Structures are given as structure tokens and as C-alpha cells.
């Protein structure tokens, strides 16, 4: 199925037809948004998110079910869905309306050296992992690193002239050879990187975009250590979270694999993504 064309006129029609109480509220496109959703701000307090492609379908219902339960237990704000919309006017998938969260996207310049911010993020993950995993998502574990082996090795070969291929291969082999998660399944955010953090006055305020939310091995959430942090703040993050060597190795593998995937897909056409993923890959190599 081809991706639908999503413009402000379509979103306006969906809102007016399904939630007429908001028909008078202004609707403004948020740009840039993520690769999974087209986002509009609705009035001053709401955000409308429509999946761009089939891979993001199901996120609206999942977030509506779980984020209101998780929010009271987490030390940073998260978006709380207030409605799930239905397909309509040619748009094929469920979509969501959530509470708008003020803030600016977190930046490396502002927070890379902040041990305090690193500890805050470790505390957020600790709180998330402590919430009891119940219901359908107990079986919704993240795909393991081995499933990404062929794609990651192919990406290493493609970008060997840009990054150190031998170092990437060594990192990847170590991640695959590391023992798997031996604890009980725990909650993970699933897409825990700089672009999904908000700040107010250069201080962390919120975590957004829980489309990858699931239960299983939390190593994927260690990606934040390589997208945002420097060596010193990364050490504070790891100590606060209490990460063992095997989980850290798998986390470096997740950072490399996801960084290579995004670099391969977007770096040639998006300088911002090129810079972010270059840093992610080089920091993962550093460790």
C-alpha cells in the first residue's frame, strides 16, 4: 500500500467530522516532525498525529492504552492521548489526539556534558522498567540484534569509506556475542534518542513518541547514551542505571545498527540527520 497524502486540509476534515468540539481550534503543521507521523498542533493544548506509513499503524491505540497508566509513575512528562480517531476521507488508519507538551527538542550542544541530565534520563528509564509489565505487550518484545545482522553488516560495508569499518565490525560482533537479557521482561521506550526529548530553559522536561513502546530487553534504550551524551555524562548515566557489561555491549550494538540504518536512509538528503547519525555511530564506536 502506498503512503497516503496527508495535508492540513485532510486533518481539518477528520477533526471536524469526528471531534466537532474542536472544530473552531486552529490547526498548524509541526515541521520538522518525525519519520513516522505527520503532526499538527490543534489549538494551544493538543497535538494531532497521523501515521505516515503502514509501519506506524497500531501506535495510536497502544499509546492510548498505556501512556495514561505510565504517566503518573514517570519523573518526566509524557504525551497523554485523549482521543483515537478513525480512518476517513481516504485516510486508511487510526490516528491520535494527545496533550501538547511545550518545549524544544533536546540538543547535544546544551546537554551532552550534563551529568545531571544523564542521571535524569537514567531515573526515567529506571521508573519505566519498574512499572509492572502486564497485558498484551508482555509478548511484544523488540526484535533482537541478530535479526538485524545481515542489514547491519551490509550497511557497514556501504559506509566503510566514511566510518572505521573494522571498529564497527568489532563492535557489532561483540554485541551479538554478548549474553542476552537474563532478567524478567521490562518496559522499554523503544526509540529513546535525542529527538524524542524535550527541554524547557535547557532542562529536560518531557519524553515523547512512544510508538516503539514494548516489553523485553531494555538494551535498546541505551541508544540515548550515544545520541546525546559525551564520555563523562555517559559514565554517570551508566552508573545511575546500573548497566552490566553485557547489556552495555548490546546497547552499543543497538546504537550502531539504528544509526547506520538512519544514516543509510536519510543522510544523503537530510543534513540534520547526517550530523546526528554520524555522531551516534562515532560515539557508539567510542563506547
What descriptive keywords fit this protein?
single chain, 287 residues, alpha+beta, Phosphorylase Kinase, domain 1, Aminoglycoside 3'-phosphotransferase, Chain: A, domain 2, 2 domains, 5-stranded antiparallel sheet, 3-stranded antiparallel sheet, 10 helices, 10 strands, 41% helix, 15% strand, globular
Tell me the name of the CATH homologous superfamily of the largest domain: Aminoglycoside phosphotransferase (APH), C-terminal lobe
The figure for the number of domains is 2
Q: Please identify the oligomeric state.
A: single chain
Structural class: alpha+beta
CATH architecture label name of the largest domain: Alpha-Beta Complex
| Tally of DSSP helical segments | 10
**Which regions contain 5 or more consecutive residues with pLDDT less than 50?**
none
Distance from first to last alpha carbon: 40 Å
Q: In sequence order, what are the helices and strands, one letter per element? A: HEEEHEEEHHHHEEEEHHHH
Strand content: 5-15%
Taken from the alpha-carbon principal axes, the silhouette is: globular
- Give the neighbour order of strands across the main sheet: 1-2-3-5-4
Query: Class of the largest domain in CATH?
Result: Alpha Beta
Number of strands: 10
Q: What is CATH's topology name of the largest domain?
A: Aminoglycoside 3'-phosphotransferase, Chain: A, domain 2
Amino acid at each position: 500500500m502506498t503512503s497516503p497524502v496527508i495535508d492540513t486540509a485532510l486533518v481539518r476534515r477528520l477533526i471536524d467530522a469526528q471531534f466537532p468540539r474542536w472544530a473552531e481550534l486552529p490547526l498548524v503543521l509541526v515541521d520538522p516532525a518525525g519519520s513516522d507521523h505527520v503532526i499538527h498542533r490543534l489549538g494551544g493544548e493538543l497535538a494531532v498525529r497521523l501515521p505516515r506509513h503502514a509501519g506506524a499503524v497500531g501506535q495510536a491505540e497502544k499509546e492510548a492504552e498505556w501512556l495514561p497508566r505510565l504517566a503518573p509513575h514517570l519523573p518526566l512528562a509524557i504525551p497523554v492521548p485523549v482521543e483515537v480517531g478513525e480512518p476517513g476521507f481516504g485516510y486508511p488508519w487510526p490516528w491520535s489526539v494527545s496533550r501538547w507538551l511545550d518545549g524544544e527538542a533536546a540538543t547535544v550542544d546544551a546537554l551532552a556534558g550534563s551529568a545531571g541530565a544523564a542521571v535524569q534520563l537514567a531515573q526515567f528509564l529506571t521508573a519505566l522498567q519498574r512499572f509492572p509489565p502486564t497485558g498484551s505487550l508482555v509478548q511484544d518484545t523488540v526484535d533482537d540484534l541478530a535479526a538485524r545482522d545481515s542489514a547491519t553488516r551490509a550497511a557497514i560495508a556501504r559506509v566503510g569509506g566514511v566510518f572505521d569499518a573494522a571498529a564497527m565490525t568489532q563492535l557489532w560482533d561483540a554485541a551479538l556475542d554478548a549474553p542476552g537479557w537474563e532478567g524478567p521482561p521490562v518496559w522499554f521506550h523503544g526509540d529513546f534518542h535525542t529527538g524524542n526529548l524535550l527541554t524547557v530553559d535547557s532542562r529536560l522536561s518531557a519524553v515523547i513518541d512512544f510508538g516503539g513502546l514494548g516489553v523485553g530487553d531494555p538494551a535498546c534504550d541505551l541508544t540515548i547514551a550515544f545520541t546525546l551524551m559525551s564520555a563523562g555524562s555517559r559514565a554517570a548515566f551508566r552508573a545511575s542505571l546500573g548497566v552490566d557489561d553485557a547489556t552495555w555491549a548490546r546497547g552499543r550494538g543497538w546504537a550502531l545498527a539504528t544509526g547506520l540504518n538512519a544514516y543509510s536512509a536519510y543522510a544523503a538528503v537530510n543534513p540534520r540527520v547526517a550530523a546526528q547519525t554520524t555522531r551516534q555511530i562515532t560515539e557508539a564506536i567510542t563506547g
